[in-house]
């Protein structure tokens, strides 16, 4: 029995296109979105103000050695501002802690009212805060970060949300509608529907090689059709 290769390859190409075509379309649409929307917009840089750098008056400040003595396991000590007040920030095994730079006294964790004030201070929009929550379980959009953290959501069509540290009140991350759409687009693009981080997962490799086989079989059918037309003319 003679194998009719054009017929076999045509059927192979047709069924493969039906199976892979949807994913190829998703690759095109999601790739288009990720190219059109600027990455700085996705990151939400426009949602927060850049910190104002002011010089420190070192006179009268507690010595860094005093802070080291208070937290022997600290891996880093640095001077920064908290509500315009200089503080020593210590990286400890239990996370960052703030000390009053003048007295060396350990500062209490920021309250909800302080978190509200800090979020409103760095937010660039005009919308009001609609909710403030201390999360101990990370939502999908913050799976890459370890809780707990404060979630502060502002009013607006794009649901701008800031995440702040429960220990220092510092900004951890920001999220908004365009970022969330990007996250879904990225998930569909790399075909990692759980962690959304693995760009070399088995499902993606199978789809990629299937799409490659579809393209090769289509190219073969195209070349074969031109050769066949030439023979008919002859």
Q: Secondary-structure map with pairings?
A:
Elements (H helix, E strand, L loop, with lengths): L4 H32 L2 H5 L20 H7 L5 E7 L2 E8 L2 E6 L11 H11 L6 E7 L13 E6 L6 E4 L6 E5 L1 H14 L11 H32 L1
Helix pairs in contact: 1-5, 1-6
Measured distance between first and last alpha carbons = 28 Å
Beta fraction? 15-25%
Main sheet attributes: strand count, strand direction, barrel closure: 4 strands, antiparallel
- The name of the CATH topology of the domain at 51-107 is Nuclear Transport Factor 2, Chain: A
- SSE string, helices as H and strands as E: HHHEEEHEEEEHH
- Strand sequence of the main sheet, in spatial order? 4-5-6-7
Number of E strands: 7
The chain-level structural class is: alpha+beta
Protein name: Peptidase
Transmembrane segments: 12-36, 206-226
Keywords: Membrane, Transmembrane, Transmembrane helix
Organism: Sphingopyxis witflariensis
């Amino acid at each position: 029995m003679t194998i009719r290769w054009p017929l076999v390859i045509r059927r192979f190409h047709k069924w493969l296109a039906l199976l892979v075509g949807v994913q190829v379309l998703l690759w095109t649409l999601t790739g288009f979105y990720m190219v059109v929307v600027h990455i700085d917009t996705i990151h939400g840089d426009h949602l927060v103000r850049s910190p104002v750098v002011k010089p420190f008056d070192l006179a009268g400040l507690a010595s860094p050695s005093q802070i080291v003595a208070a937290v022997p396991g600290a891996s880093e000590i640095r001077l920064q501002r908290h509500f315009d007040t200089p503080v020593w920030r210590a990286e400890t095994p239990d996370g960052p802690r703030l000390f009053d730079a003048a007295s060396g006294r350990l500062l209490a964790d920021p309250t909800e009212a302080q978190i509200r004030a800090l979020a409103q201070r760095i937010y660039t929009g005009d919308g009001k805060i609609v909710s403030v929550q201390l999360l101990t379980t990370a939502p999908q959009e913050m799976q890459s970060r370890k809780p707990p953290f404060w979630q502060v959501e502002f009013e607006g069509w794009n649901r701008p949300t800031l995440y702040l540290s429960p220990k220092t009140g510092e900004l951890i991350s920001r999220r908004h509608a365009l970022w969330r759409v990007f996250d879904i687009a990225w998930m569909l693009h790399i075909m990692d529907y759980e962690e959304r981080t693995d760009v070399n997962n088995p499902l993606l490799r199978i789809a990629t090689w299937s799409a490659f086989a579809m393209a090769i079989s289509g190219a073969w059918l195209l070349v074969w059709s031109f050769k066949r037309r030439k023979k008919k003319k002859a």
